[in-house]
Description:
The protein is built from one helix and six strands. The protein has one helix at 2-20; strands at 30-32, 45-52, 55-64, 70-76, 81-83, 87-89. Helix content is 21%, strand content 37%. Strands 1, 2, 3, 4, 5 and 6 form a six-stranded antiparallel sheet that branches. The protein starts with a helix and ends with a strand. By secondary structure, the chain is α+β, with helices and mostly antiparallel strands. The protein is elongated and about 70 Å long.
Amino acid sequence: xxxxxxxxxxxxxxxxxxxxxxxxxxxxxxxxxxxxxxxxxxxxxxxxxxxxxxxxxxxxxxxxxxxxxxxxxxxxxxxxxxxxxxxxxxxx
Length: 92
């Protein structure tokens, strides 16, 4: 009976850990760019370009429009890809 309880507890722990772990190998949702002029002028002025050491092939372009809204666009220049998800930070 004790072995069955230990086995059941082990299975529960494995299931909980499996559910709580985030996949890190998922592919980014991307759209192919025909050219980099596809970024809308409404995003505003380019105010910064940043990188993340974990993803050296990507750059983040930060834009600020006239209302102060900030948008971040992620671009992979070598592969000519742009990430579909533009992050928008509204300002009030």
